[in-house]
Amino acid sequence: MSSIPKKELLVLEILAASGPMHGLGLVTESGEALKRGTVYVTLGRMEAKGFVMSEQEPSHPGAIGLPRRIYRTKKYTVIVHATTMTIPRTTVPGTRRATAAPA
Fold first, then answer.
1. Which of 70, 91, 74 lies closest to 82 in space, CA to CA?
2. What integer pLDDT is reported at residue 32 of this predicted model?
3. Which pLDDT band holds residue 64 (cuts at 50, 70, 90)?
4. Average of per-residue pLDDT values in the chain
5. Fewer Cβ atoms within 10 Å of its own Cβ: the N or the C terminal residue of the chain?
6. What Å distances lie between residue 50 and 19, 29, 59, 73, 75, CA to CA?
7. How far, in Å, CA of 84 to CA of 74, rounded?
8. Cα separation of 59 and 54, whole Å?
9. Residue 53: which H helix or E strand, with range?
């Protein structure tokens, strides 16, 4: 079982499937499973953990407001996530510890 929170897993899945995007794009892609009020907190936490990185969108002449931040996964995050999601897990009898299931 993964120790990554569900919202963070959802962000990783969306970014891995759809590519870089801004926070409100993630809200839309998630079908509102991610909320406007928490998506940037989640992204900030994920950036601090090293799961995602961001860069400021280039500003356009005549644009109003601040440029958006575009978020993307780090390559190793996608590889590790994909690997851990496909390895079957079993519980070791008599313990709470999970291990990879035998092949």
1. 74
2. 87
3. confident
4. 78
5. C
6. 17, 22, 26, 9, 11
7. 16
8. 15
9. strand 52-56
